[in-house]
Design a protein that fits this description.
The protein is mostly helical. It contains 16 helices and two strands. The chain has one domain. This is DUF2236 domain-containing protein.
């Protein structure tokens, strides 16, 4: 393995700047609420995933995949992409409306999941207070076409600027709706079973202990950060005051997380990437 390999992006990328924000955990949850509004995407998850019985395990695996594609070496990112493509290639689902069987790796579905995810990460980071210029915003979307290629998408078919993302959402919105599966998933995301270490108070009868309240707060913020049209589909009013409240909350959360030691804010894959970058800088510094 090349000790200087900094992967698909590197320290000078907008991607590293955005994903250095621990508050993106809220963005990840926001993307799941958003993705659930696509009936076929939701059917693909519901009919192939163990997310109800292994919610936290699936969350950890997803977070590890994202961290690997962002901070892993080129070989690690490509290997992670190959595993995802092999997994998706074996999966299919039945459209709940038409009864038609479709492949989970259908490009239209992969594109929806990709755009919902990267737009959620970027929107959450910006609204939490990360300063980004319009050029950096477009740069992030353009860079993330590399991540889209890992799952089998043609990068040329993936929105690469903020304007293209807005156009994409406008084109796909007629396909979105609140289905029973979406409602059940949203409820599950809002009140999932806690990991065993955190669920002990629940077993003791303290059903709304600190871990549960804290998670409720994160979930409510993620919902509040959704686009107004998506909030309305979930039964909200899409009011500006809802978005303002979510903005204030996510800004406060970012400030709180920034006060934590770096070793707590950066996962092992990110830390390894930063160490490789530091070694490269030392070897390239004139003696």
């Amino acid at each position: 393995m090349d000790s200087d390999d900094l992967g698909l992006f590197g320290p000078g990328s907008v991607t590293w700047k955005v994903h250095a924000e621990p508050v993106l955990i809220v963005g990840g949850l926001r993307s799941l609420y958003l993705q659930a509004l696509h009936p076929r995407a939701m059917a693909g998850v519901a009919q192939n995933s163990d997310y109800r019985t292994d919610a936290w395990g699936r969350l950890v695996r997803t977070a590890t995949y994202v961290a690997t594609t962002v901070y892993g070496t080129t070989a690690e990112a490509e290997e992670a992409g190959q595993r995802i493509r092999r997994l998706h290639a074996r999966m299919s689902a039945v459209d709940p409306r038409t009864g038609e069987r479709f492949r989970v790796d259908d490009p239209d579905l992969l594109r929806w999941v990709h755009v919902a995810e990267v737009e959620s990460f970027l929107d959450t980071a910006r609204r939490a207070g990360l300063p980004l210029t319009p050029a950096e915003v477009d740069g992030y979307y353009t860079e993330q076409r590399r991540s889209a290629a890992l799952v089998g998408l043609d990068p040329a078919t993936v929105p690469g600027t903020a304007a293209e993302v807005a156009d994409y959402y406008a084109s796909v919105r007629p396909e979105l709706r609140m289905t029973r599966e979406a409602a059940e998933t949203a409820l599950f995301l809002t009140a999932p079973p806690l990991p065993w270490k955190l669920s002990l108070p629940v077993r003791l009868g303290l059903t709304l202990g600190p871990p549960r309240w804290a998670y409720f707060g994160v979930a409510a913020t993620a919902l509040g950060l959704l686009p107004a049209w998506a909030r309305r589909m979930y039964g909200g009013l899409g009011l500006p005051t809802t978005a303002l409240s979510a903005d204030l909350t996510v800004r406060g959360l970012r400030l709180a997380l920034a006060a934590l030691p770096q070793r707590w804010r950066a996962g092992p894959i990110q830390q390894a990437a930063m160490e490789r970058a530091a070694r490269r800088d030392v070897t390239r510094t004139p003696g």
